[in-house]
Design brief:
This protein has helices at about 65-70, 75-90, 100-105, 110-120, 125-130, 140-150, 160-170, 190-200, 225-230, 265-275, 285-290, 340-345, 365-375, 385-395, and strands at about 5, 10-25, 25-35, 40-45, 55-60, 95-100, 155-160, 175-180, 210, 220-225, 240-245, 250-255, 280-285, 305-310, 330-335, 350-355, 355-360, 360, 380-385, 400-405, 410-415, 430-440, 440-445. It has about 450 residues and is of the alpha/beta class. It has two domains: about 5-210, Rossmann fold; about 220-445, Dihydrofolate Reductase, subunit A (3-Layer(aba) Sandwich). The strands form five sheets. The chain has a nine-stranded mixed beta sheet, sandwiched between helices. A hairpin with a 2-residue loop joins β2 and β3.
C-alpha cells in the first residue's frame, strides 16, 4: 500500500494491508504497518478519525501469555478487552497492538525467566534486574508513528502508565487526558499491580478500595483483597473463603427458595470482585439446579475464575449456565455417576474429575486435594447451605465473608446447618473481624482459626 514517513526520527513505516475486522466488541478496520526492523504493528480503527483530534486511543503492549493464553499473572488481557470495548462504544478510536513489547520489552523467554525469579520471591521489577535486564525496555516511537500515519493529532489515552504519556508527547502526539484501565486484582496479581503503582508510578491500577464504595456508582474495578485476609498456603488444599449473603435474621433464601436479591448492587459487585480475586469459585449441584448461576465476573473488570461444581451423581442439567463457554468449568463427581454422562460433559470441554465419596456424597478433603494439585490455590465457596455446612464440618475454611442485608424473612433457608455444637463453648469462634458498610448492607469478614 506504499510507504509513509513515520516521523519518529529514524524510520519509515510501510502500510501493508487494511481490511474490515468484525469482532465480538464491534467492527474495526485492521491496518497493518511494517517497520524496517521487520516488526509489524496492527492498528484497529473504529469509525472515522476525521480531523484527528480528541481520539480515544490505546497503545497495547503485546503479551502472548496474557492476551492469548489468558494468564492470571498479569492484567493485560483484561485491559485489552476493556480498551476494545471502550473504543467500540464510542464508535471512534484506535488501538495499536505493539509488537516487541513482550515483558516490558525484554522478550518472551526472558519474561518467563523473570517469572521464575518472581516465584522465588522477587517482584516484577527486581526479577528483571536479577537477570541483568532493564526494568522497561519499551520504545513507543514506532507505535506512536502508527498514530501519525492514521492522522491522529491528539488523544485521550487509555492507560495507567505515565511513561506511555511521555512517549506519545515526545513523538508529537498531544495527550489531552488519560482514561484509567484499572482491573480488579486477584490473589495472583495484587502484589504485581501494587508494585507497578509503587515503583513504576502507574495510577491506581487496582481500582477502588472497599472503603470508597459509598458512592452510588459501582466502581469499574474493585480491590477486595483485604476481604480475603492473609492467604495461607496449604500443601493439600486451597485457601478456602466462604461467601454468602443473608438477611438480618440469618436466611439466605425464603421458605420457597427465593434468594434474588437479598443483597444490593454494591454487595453483589463485591461478590463478583471476590470471584475475580480467586482461582476458583465452587458451588454444589443443588445451587446450580435451584438458582442456575453463571458464576462469572460481570459487574467489575476482572478475570472469571474456574467454575467448580460438586455433583455426586451428575445431576447437572445440560442447559445449566455454568456450562456456557464464558469461563472454564470443572465438575467433581464420584464413581456413582454415569461414565457415559462424564464422557458427554468432557466432549463439551468440561473437566470432569472423579474422587472418592463418603456417606454424605463427595469427600471434601479428596476434592480439595485434587484442586490444589491441579493449580487452585485460592477457592471461593458460594453455596449452597449443604456445601457451606460441610466445609465448616470438615474444618477446611480459612475465611468467612458475609453480606448482611436489612431484611427480616422469618422461615427460610439458613446458611449453616447443624455442626453438632451443643454448647456455646464448643462453637467455632472467628477472629480478626473486618467490617464495611455498603449502601444499605453490611459486609463482615473473619478469619477461621486453624488450631481448632
Amino acid at each position: 500500500m506504499g510507504s509513509v514517513d513515520a516521523d519518529d526520527g529514524s524510520s519509515v513505516l510501510r502500510e501493508m494491508v487494511r481490511v474490515a475486522l468484525p469482532t465480538s466488541f464491534g467492527l474495526f478496520e485492521a491496518r497493518a504497518f511494517e517497520h524496517p526492523s521487520g516488526r509489524v504493528y496492527v492498528a484497529l480503527v473504529a469509525g472515522e478519525i476525521g480531523d484527528g483530534h480528541h481520539v480515544l486511543a490505546r497503545l497495547h503492549s503485546e503479551c502472548l501469555t496474557g492476551d492469548v493464553f489468558g494468564s492470571l499473572r498479569c492484567d493485560c488481557r483484561i485491559q485489552l478487552h476493556q480498551a476494545l470495548r471502550a473504543i467500540s462504544a464510542e464508535r471512534r478510536g484506535v488501538l495499536v497492538y505493539v509488537t516487541g513489547h513482550e515483558g516490558r520489552g525484554i522478550g518472551l523467554v526472558n519474561k518467563l525467566l523473570a517469572y521464575v525469579e518472581q516465584d522465588n520471591g522477587a517482584d516484577t521489577i527486581d526479577a528483571n534486574l536479577q537477570l541483568g535486564l532493564p526494568v522497561d525496555a519499551r520504545d513507543y516511537g514506532p507505535a506512536t508513528a502508527v498514530l501519525g500515519c492514521l492522522g491522529v493529532q491528539s488523544v485521550r489515552l487509555l492507560t495507567n502508565n505515565p511513561r506511555k504519556v511521555d512517549g506519545l508527547r515526545s513523538a508529537g502526539i498531544d495527550v489531552l487526558t488519560t482514561v484509567a484501565l484499572a482491573t480488579t486484582p486477584s490473589s495472583r496479581t495484587s502484589a504485581y499491580l501494587q508494585t507497578k503503582e509503587r515503583r513504576l508510578g502507574h495510577v491506581r491500577p487496582t481500582g477502588a478500595q472497599l472503603a470508597e464504595l459509598d458512592d452510588p456508582a459501582i466502581a469499574p474495578a474493585l480491590d477486595v483483597t483485604a476481604l480475603l485476609g492473609k492467604l495461607r498456603r496449604h500443601p493439600d488444599r486451597p485457601y478456602v473463603v466462604l461467601k454468602y449473603a443473608q438477611s438480618l435474621d440469618g436466611r439466605i433464601a425464603t421458605s420457597t427458595g427465593d434468594a434474588k436479591w437479598i443483597s444490593g448492587d454494591h454487595e453483589r459487585a463485591v461478590s463478583h470482585a471476590l470471584r475475580a480475586a480467586c482461582d476458583g469459585v465452587l458451588v454444589g449441584v443443588g445451587t446450580v439446579i435451584r438458582d442456575d448461576p453463571q458464576l462469572t465476573v460481570r459487574m467489575v473488570a476482572g478475570a472469571s475464575p474456574m467454575r467448580i461444581v460438586l455433583d455426586t451423581t451428575l445431576r447437572l442439567p445440560d442447559a445449566a449456565r455454568v456450562l456456557e463457554p464464558e469461563a472454564a468449568t470443572t465438575v467433581i463427581t464420584t464413581d456413582r455417576s454415569s461414565a457415559a454422562r462424564r464422557a458427554a460433559l468432557r466432549r463439551r470441554g468440561v473437566r470432569v474429575d472423579v474422587v472418592r465419596g463418603d456417606r454424605t456424597g463427595i469427600d471434601l478433603h479428596a476434592a480439595l486435594e485434587l484442586l490444589r494439585a491441579t493449580g487452585t490455590t485460592s477457592l471461593l465457596v458460594e453455596g449452597g447451605s449443604k456445601v457451606l455446612t460441610s466445609m465448616f464440618a470438615a474444618r477446611v475454611v480459612d475465611r468467612v465473608v458475609v453480606g448482611v442485608a436489612p431484611l427480616v424473612i422469618g422461615d427460610g433457608t439458613q446458611a449453616i446447618g447443624s455442626l453438632g455444637v451443643t454448647s456455646v463453648a464448643g462453637a467455632i469462634r472467628l477472629e480478626n473481624r473486618s467490617m464495611y458498610p455498603l449502601d444499605g448492607d453490611l459486609l463482615l469478614a473473619w478469619d477461621v482459626p486453624q488450631d481448632r
